[in-house]
Queue: 2 jobs
Job 1
Amino acid sequence: MSRSQLALIVGQGGIKPDGEGPGLGLAISMRLVKLMGGQLAARSELGQGSALSFVLEAPICVRRSAA
């Protein structure tokens, strides 16, 4: 898809409150990533395909062994 199409899908106006827009799966993903403090990234090559990814900061949990 073109840059302008990609911007419409993942831009601020891409998801409407009534659920209309890029699709339910992407809408849910975008909201979850935002709620967890992450960022969603998208890239696309016209005629080649698109890739969407996200980055989250998560603490490392260390399991303590039983004494």
Job 2
Amino acid sequence: MENRFDELFKQYELKMNEDEVRTRVQKIIDEKVPLNNTLDVKRFLMGSIELTTLKTTDSEDSVMAFTQKVNDFDGTYPDLPHVATICVYPCFASVVKETLDVAGVNIACVSGSFPSSQALLEVKVAETALAIKDGANEIDIVMPVGKFLCGDYEGVYDEISELKQTCGDCAMKVILETGDLVSFENIKKASVLAMYAGADYIKTSTGKEKISATPEAAYIMCQAIKEYHKATGKVIGFKPAGGINTVMDAVTYYTIVEEVLGKEWLTNDLFRLGTSRLANLLLSEIEGEEIKFF
């Protein structure tokens, strides 16, 4: 007997030839990425960065200093866009809120037992609610990957949807942990399920697993966003994260979004980059000299 998720998945192209996907992605990289290796694109990317600190050694003092760097950047480089978001653990949301002086920079918190998502739902709800109370206006949660891989789509849906209810008007990003999803079909299926359950963005990875963001995962997720938009009219954001080590990595993800979703998705409201190391690299290329600001 079919259930609602069987009906949902029937609406999407889930069966893919993985070699063909890799070939299409490589064609984009070879032909289109060099065209976007420009200062204008790099300036845009600067404004899409989610400056992130998620270390065991984080403290109130280190997070305050981290946030102050964003304040200082606005004055030091007034002609460049500031980062989109500062992302921290929930216990530091109030520190960022009290320290941040720059208008237009959002406060994001990872929540729901990041990065494993292995906690009771009540704990995830409480952590999310407390992060929002303390100043977060964006929440990054991790899809319960174990439930998904076991085929418990109802359980995955229930968790994401309850956490979205907790988020209310705050944007919720659902991390799929694509490196653990085994197949391209699973990446597409998880993308659709997360959006159906209430995701405002879908995000590749936590950056804590062996495989993080890849161009192929990004391509599949953007295809899912495109199909979901066509089916529902809803506009969902995209965030690659983890393993974005070079400026050309970032330009590659920008180009995939441009080629699959179009220029209307190239705003810092809909396209985010989960990385901190990239900020200095972009700044160095924009300014023409090595800079270690952040």
